[in-house]
Amino acid sequence: MRGTRAAQRYAKAILSLAKDKNSAEAVNEDMISISKTVVNSRDLENMLTSPVIKDSTKKSALLEIFKDLNTITKGAIDILLENGRIGILHLVARQYIIKFNELNNVRQAVVTTAVPLDKELEAVILSKVKELTGSEASLKSVIDEDIIGGFVLRVGDLQYDASVSRNLRRLERELKDNTYVSKI
Fold first, then answer.
1. In this UniProt entry, which cysteines form S-S bonds?
2. Model confidence over 5-55: pLDDT tens digits?
């Protein structure tokens, strides 16, 4: 992905400054908000990457959308604008979140279900992840109706698949490979 290396460098610098100013948590909240908003708004992403739109317009739009930003986050936006890198703002935000989580020993857990999870089930899953990994986790929920039921949990390179579709595939494979029943 274009700009990822630069985004990592900006994120590292922002995190370093935020740690020095004891604002890492507040900046993380800003970055989560920025990342979600830019990813969910194609128009905003297009505006940020457009060479036709003036930087002053981009800055005023960002400050209007994100009214309660930390001064460090505002400074980061200014630096990105000055360096002509505002188009990678969402990548910087994503990299900041990753680095912040690494710093705080928080792992990313991705749970895939056929239906949305309620808050109680999310809490149970997070406690199980903490029990299994020994570290805190943030939960990302993905809805995939193809798994039919159950769930698939991924934490780092570990995966636990308790989906109905997996069990059906396993059953199908066992029936096809059954040596006791002659092939019809």
1. none
2. 999 999 999 999 999 999 999 999 999 999 999 999 999 999 999 999 999
Nearest residue to 72 (alpha-carbon basis) of 19, 7, 111? 19
The C-alpha atoms of residue 25 and residue 36 are separated, in whole angstroms, by 17
- Topology of domain 4-102 in CATH is Peroxidase; domain 1 (1.10.520)
CA 172/CA 81 separation, integer angstroms = 56
pLDDT at 44: 93
Predicted structure pTM score: 0.71
Name the residue ranges covered by the structural domains of the chain. 4-102, 105-176
Residue 95 and residue 10 in contact, taking contact as beta carbons nearer than 8 Å: yes
Q: At residue 146, what are phi and psi to the nearest 5 degrees?
A: -65, -20
What order do you get walking across the sheet with 136-143 strand by strand? 136-143, 106-113, 150-155, 158-163
When pLDDT is cut at 50, 70 and 90, the band that residue 184 belongs to is low
Give the residue among 41, 14, 182 at the shortest CA–CA distance from 98. Answer: 14
Computed over every residue of the chain, the mean pLDDT equals 89
CA distance 16 to 11: 8
Whole-Å CA distances, 173 to 145, 152, 168, 180, 183: 22, 20, 9, 14, 14
